[in-house]
Amino acid sequence: MVRILIADDHPIVRTGLKQILADDPGIHLAGEATNSSEVIDFLWKHDCDLVLLDIGMPGRSGLEIIGEIKQIKPNIGVLILSIYPEEQYAVRALRAGASGYLTKSSAPIELILAIHKVSKGGKYVSQNLAEILASEIDRHNSKQIHEKLSDREYQVMLMLASGKTVTEVADDLCLSVKTISTYRANILEKMSMKNNAQLTFYAVEKNLIK
Question: In order of start, what are the domains of the chain with their CATH numbers?
Answer without folding.
Answer: 2-138 (3.40.50.2300), 145-205 (1.10.10.10)
